[in-house]
Amino acid sequence: MMTMNKLKLQITMLVLIGGATLVNAAPGAIAPGELSNRLQSGEAITVIDVRATDFFQKGHIPGAISVPATILPQKGLPKLGKVVVYDAGLGEDLATGAVAALNAKPGITAQVLDGGLAGWESAKGETTADPGVTASQLPMISYGKLKNISGDYVIVDLRQPGTASKSAAGQPSQHADLSTEFPGASVVRDAFAVSSPRKAVNGVSAAPAPLLVLVDSGDGKAQEVGHTLKANGVRRFVILAGGEEMILRKGQSGSGRSGSSEIFTEAQISTLKQGGIPGTPTTPPAAKTQ
Fold first, then answer.
1. Separation between Cα atoms, residue 103 and residue 93, nearest integer Å
2. How far apart are CA 116 and CA 31, in angstroms?
3. pLDDT for the residue 286
4. pLDDT tens digits along 214-270
5. If the chain, 290 residues long, is cut into consecutive pieces of 10 residues, what is the mean pLDDT of each piece?
6. Beta pairing partners, 112
7. Does the domain made of 4-122 have the CATH classification 3.30.460.10?
8. Which CATH architecture has domain 137-273?
9. Beta-carbon contacts of residue 130 (< 8 Å; ≥ 6 apart)
10. Beta bridge partners of 72
11. What HEC string does the chain produce?
C-alpha cells in the first residue's frame, strides 16, 4: 500500500490567530477510504486537523495542517478549494462546526472526515503518531458529554450479573437500563461484533465502524476490553468515566469533569472512579489479545 507520505496534498501554510466557538451542521461527510482514494489519485485536497495543537503534535494524518476549532471561524483563509476536516472522532464533534465555518468563507468547499482521526486509524489509515507513545492511553468520555453526543455510536454493555454499582446514597442498586438512559444508541454485549470497519478501498476501509462506548460496573472490564481493542487495531472507542456508577449518579462526582471528553491512563481512570482528580500517569499492564 502506498504510504500517506507519498500522497499529493495541497498544503497551505496558515497563520493562527484568536478564535471562537463553532456552530452549525456539516452538509456531508467523506469516508476514510474515499479520502484515501482521492488523495492517491493526486486530487488537490487540504486536510485540516481541528483538535488542540498538543494533540496534533502527538500524531495526525500525514500532510494535514493544524487549525484548532477554537480559532478557525475568525481565520482569514485563502481560497483553499476542497478541504477535509477531522477531529478526534471520539464524540466531541468539533469538525461539524468547523466545516460550517469554512463553507461560509469564499473559495472553500469543506467536508467532515467520517469517524475523525479514530475512524481513520481504525480503517488502517496511516498517521504520524509513535505507536509506543500512546500504548498506555485509553480515551474516556464523561457522563455529561455522552448524554449530549450525536452521530453514530453504540453502547457496549460490559456489566456482569451481580456487579451492579451502588446508588448515589450508597445503597445496592439494580443495573441501569442503558437503552432507556441512552435512547439514541444501540446496546450490545460484544465490542468486536460492531468494531470492524467496512469494505476497504486501496487498503483503507471505506467507512469507519461506529463509535463504541464501553460501560462496566467499575470492575476494570472496560479497560481490559479497551486494551484488547487497541491491540487489534481498533481506535474508535471511549470508556465511560466512572462506569455505571456515574450513570446512577447522573454524572455527579468530585472530579469536576462531568462536561468534558479527555484521554487518561488506566491509573487516572481508577482515580476518577473513586471520585478523585487524576494525578501522575502510570503504565498499565500489557494489552491482552484475542
1. 17
2. 9
3. 44
4. 999 999 999 999 999 998 888 999 999 999 999 998 888 644 444 444 444 445 545
5. 35 27 48 92 96 95 95 94 96 92 96 94 88 73 89 90 57 80 91 67 60 94 94 91 92 53 49 43 42
6. 29, 85
7. no
8. 3-Layer(aba) Sandwich (3.40)
9. 59
10. none
11. CCCHHHCCCCCCCCCCCCCCCCCCCCCCEECHHHHHHHHHCCCCCEEEECCCHHHHHHCCCCCCEECCCCCCCCCCCCCCEEEEEECCCCCCCHHHHHHHHHHCCCCEEEEEECCHHHHHHHCCCCCCCCCCCCCCEEEEECHHHHHCCCCCEEEEECCCCCCCCECCCCCECCCCCHHHHCCCCEEECCHHHCCCCCCEECCEECCCCCEEEEECCCCCHHHHHHHHHHHCCCCCEEEECCCHHHHHCCCCCCCCCCCCEEEEEHHHHHHHHCCCCCCCCCCCCCCCCC
Give pTM, 2 decimals: 0.70
Q: Residue 214 is placed in which grid cell?
A: 464501553
User: What is the amino acid identity at position 277?
Assistant: I
CA distance 270 to 13: 42
pLDDT of residue 15: 25
Q: Where in the chain is the domain with CATH 3.40.250.10?
A: 4-122
As a dihedral over the C-alpha atoms of residue 242, residue 243, residue 248, residue 254, rounded to 10 degrees, the angle is: 0
Cell numbers for 109? 468547499
